[in-house]
Design a protein that fits this description.
alpha/beta; 6-stranded parallel β-sheet; two-stranded antiparallel ribbon
């Protein structure tokens, strides 16, 4: 259990981000975006600029990188980007991070709802999740095309908790970036940042927990029961 104000709260659900959190897909997304940008005549886009935006909705990424001119061609850019990314998925260039299946299974055995809230649209999830063999491990799946406002707006996490019939204050959000931590903080959820070996110097907003990989998650969740 944990305390919010004067109340003791028991954890009832865990909501996971997908890209960079459960699957090692950031590099594939970066390659896909940059290749599509180049094919559409937008060259000299740096990998660093794209990488730091992975986790945001595609339209937001294009607006930040290319501005209004890029948005005029968004549908074409996104279509090519997605086709490149799916090819990388099918070729096995996108893989599960370590411990994912075991951790999701263990959390379910604790009696908690396990949810997925991702900026990735449903037509991509229909390929990715079966390929990763984790489709059946989620009680709730909320793709990016089922919400009007993408991350860092909290709508996608609110919807996941609502479909799980759990108060957000009785839930935890696990993600790999501040695009997950910021909205989760806004709705009162426990926040857990997973690094997967990355180094961070300073965060503008501090998560409740920082873990290096998902093997460290289950003991934290048990403490919150």
């Amino acid at each position: 259990m944990f305390i919010i104000g004067e109340y003791m709260i028991k954890l009832k659900a865990v909501v996971f981000d997908l890209d960079g959190t459960l699957i090692d897909s950031v590099e594939a997304h970066v390659i896909s975006w940059i290749t599509s940008f180049n094919e559409h005549g937008f060259r000299n886009v740096s990998r660093e600029d794209v990488e730091k935006l992975i986790g945001l909705p595609g339209r937001t990424i294009v607006k930040i990188i290319l501005g209004e001119e890029g948005l005029k061609r968004y549908e074409s850019i996104r279509k090519l980007k997605d086709s490149i990314f799916l090819k990388l998925v099918v070729e096995g260039k996108v893989k599960l991070h370590k411990h994912v299946t075991d951790v999701l299974t263990e959390i379910r055995k604790m009696g908690l709802k396990v949810c997925l809230a991702t900026s990735t649209p449903s037509y991509l999830l229909e390929v990715i999740l079966p390929k990763m063999r984790i489709s059946e491990l989620f009680d709730v799946i909320v793709p990016g095309d089922r919400v009007r406002k993408g991350k860092p707006d909290p709508e996608i996490f609110l919807r996941a908790f609502r479909e799980a019939r759990v108060d957000p204050r009785e839930g935890a959000v696990v993600g790999d970036s501040l695009y997950d931590i910021i909205p989760a903080k806004k709705i009162g959820s426990i926040t857990i940042l997973v690094l997967h070996g990355r180094r961070i110097e300073k965060l503008d907003i501090e998560p409740d927990y920082v873990i290096n990989d998902l093997s460290e998650l289950a003991p934290i969740i048990r403490k919150l029961l």
